[in-house]
Each structure stands twice: as C-alpha cells, then as structure tokens.
Design goal:
Largest sheet: 9 strands, mixed
Helix content: 40-55%
CATH architecture of the largest domain: Alpha-Beta Complex
CATH topology of the largest domain: Spore Coat Polysaccharide Biosynthesis Protein SpsA, Chain A
CATH class of the largest domain: Alpha Beta
Number of helices: 12
Number of domains: 2
Number of strands: 9
Structural class: alpha/beta
Strand content: 15-25%
Length: 334
C-alpha cells in the first residue's frame, strides 16, 4: 500500500446504463500542481447485466490512469466495499457511487485534505442533484436523505451532533480500515443488497473511525453531481428509505453507547414499545391535518419508526452480544 496516492472505488449493481458518465467524469480529472498517483477500481457487485464489460470499454477509450474491474459475488454494498478496499493500492480511498459525477479536481482536493491534518480520518463534500426527469415537489424537503445538498454550512470538522458523513463521495485512510480488521471489526450493517433498500454502513464506518480517535472533515467545495433516476423519485421509495434509516439507527445504538457519555440503551421491549406508540401518535396527528408538506413529514417519521421498531424486535436477542463485541473491538470495558 502506497501512502502517496488515491484509489477511487466505484461499487456497482446493474450499472451498465449508468456507469459511462461516472467514468467520463473521472477521465476529466485535472491537477494544478504535481499529479499524484491514482487509480480507479470498479467493483461489480453481483450484477446481472454488462456492467463489467461496459466499464472496461469506456475506460479503454481514454485510459488516463490505472484501472481495473473486479467482481464481488456476495450482494451487499459493504461486501462490495470490502472487495474494493482489498484491491486498493493507495492510502486514500474514495467511494464513488455508480450514479455520481465528481468534479475535475476531486483527486487533487482529497490529497490536500488528508495532507493537511493527520487526525482527519474521513472526508466528504457537497452534491447537486441531476434529475432524469423533473424533480418531484417534495424533493427539496428531503434532499439530504438522498445525499444531496450540503452536509454543513461551511467547511470544517463534523461535530458530534451530526457524527457522520454521507456515503456518496466518502473518502478515508485505508490504514484505518486495516486497523479495524486487525481489531476484529465486523459490520453490524451491510448497506444495499441488490434491490433491497437498507442503510447505515456509512455511518457505522464513521463511528468506528471516531472510536479510533480520528476526526471527520467536510469540504464544501469538494463537489459531485448525483443522478436521480425517475424510479427513485416516488414518495413510496422515500418511505422505504426512511424505514431503512430507522432500522440502521436501531442497530447503531451500540456505537452511541460508547460515543456519547450519558447515552442509555434502554431494554429492547421499552425501545420497541416506545416506537410503536410513536407510530400510533403520528397516525392520529396526520388524521387531523390537511397541509400536504406536514403530512409528508409525518409519513416519513412514521416509516422511520416502523423500521426502528422492526429492527429492535429482530435484534432483541442479539443486541447485548453486538454491544459487547463493539466494546471489545474498541478497548472498552465489556
């Protein structure tokens, strides 16, 4: 592993029709000073289309740097990321989604950020939406849930209140990942699995880096465009995402016990009951209002609580074991 370069990792699932502009954006990288070493790795995550073939053909037309396509047969975004990390040759790794078009100075700015402070463990930026068709009327209300917009008002360290960075464009030091593996780190979340909408793997990595003693940094002028296909611009899809967020939040409570002094993980039956009660209260509240925007917000929170309750129920016998594992990995008293 070389410390003076950047590995761009693109995890793909059936991305044959999306991957071309993603790679073309990377082929347009520019450098104002000395050009760092960098590479592009496409991870084909159990695709059933021609993702690998199309990616190789696109890059061959303009091979500006090192490039490879690898296959990960186990469905799941985190499995694909592990595969890409195993292949990465350089210290800085940057995860680009298969619908992200990065700016021309993406690689150069990453080198600047990680060279500026050795305590920075991970970095992220801002993004703008590119719609296949027109944006739905509700999109601006929920754009952050699609990793669109700004993660903070200005560049700086992510505070404890927010606590994590988006997965789209998430970049970090590979040496931290290696340390996590040496400690026996095991993900509690796996991310998307094919068409199954789940979440949390990005937050989990950020929490893990923080527990290793590193900081998260947001650079406002580190930008990418995030393609929004029409199929995802349905409110029903957003509600599926909300349920996934709720499920991951329940899983990641084990990390919050270690990260936030005073955070108390209540008995599973209390957490489950409180979430069921919240769903009932939201349904009742929605019945008495007519404002469309408020009703959408209530529907989102209801779906979130439904996902949270479901995960708490599913993990009722495993939660204590997960908490003990996290404490052991990060050297806390079990």
């Amino acid at each position: 592993m070389k410390p003076d370069g950047v590995s761009i990792i693109i995890c793909c699932y059936n991305a044959a029709r999306r991957i071309t502009p993603v790679l073309e954006a990377l082929q347009c990288q520019q450098f104002s000073d000395s050009k760092p070493l960098w590479e592009v790795i496409v991870v084909d995550n159990a695709s059933s289309d021609d993702t690998s073939k199309v990616a190789a053909e696109v890059w061959q037309k303009n091979p500006v740097t090192l490039f490879k396509v690898v296959k990960e047969p186990e469905p799941g975004l985190m499995f694909a990321r592990k595969c890409g990390l195993n292949e990465a040759a350089f210290e800085i790794v940057s995860f680009i989604d298969d619908d992200n078009y990065v700016e021309r100075y993406w690689v150069e700015k990453l080198v600047e950020v990680f060279s500026s402070d050795e305590t920075i463990g991970a970095c992220g930026g801002s993004s703008n939406a590119v719609f296949e068709k027109e944006a739905p009327e509700w999109f601006a209300e929920f754009e952050n849930n699609f990793a669109v917009g700004k993660q903070m008002d200005k560049s700086g360290f992510i505070d404890e209140y927010k606590g994590f960075l988006w997965g789209a464009g998430l970049s970090f030091r590979k040496s931290l990942w290696i340390e996590l593996q040496q400690r026996g780190f095991q993900n509690l979340t796996v991310g998307r699995q094919g068409k199954n909408i789940s979440a949390g793997e990005d937050s989990e990595l950020c929490y893990a880096f923080r527990l290793l003693g590193y900081k998260l940094f947001y650079r406002d002028d580190l930008t990418l465009q995030h393609f929004m296909p029409q199929a995802r611009m349905q409110f029903s899809y957003l509600l599926q995402m909300a349920a996934g967020f709720g499920k991951s939040y329940a899983r990641l409570n084990c990390y919050r016990v270690l990260l936030y002094p005073g955070f108390v993980l209540k008995p599973w039956w209390y957490e489950w009951g409180a979430s069921i009660k919240k769903q009932f209260q939201l349904s009742l509240h929605s019945f008495f209002i007519s404002d469309k925007q408020k009703k959408r917000g209530i529907a989102f929170r209801k779906a979130y609580n439904k996902g949270y309750a479901k995960q708490v129920w599913e993990d009722k016998s495993a939660r204590d074991k997960n908490l003990k594992l996290i404490k052991t990995i990060f050297g806390k008293q079990p």
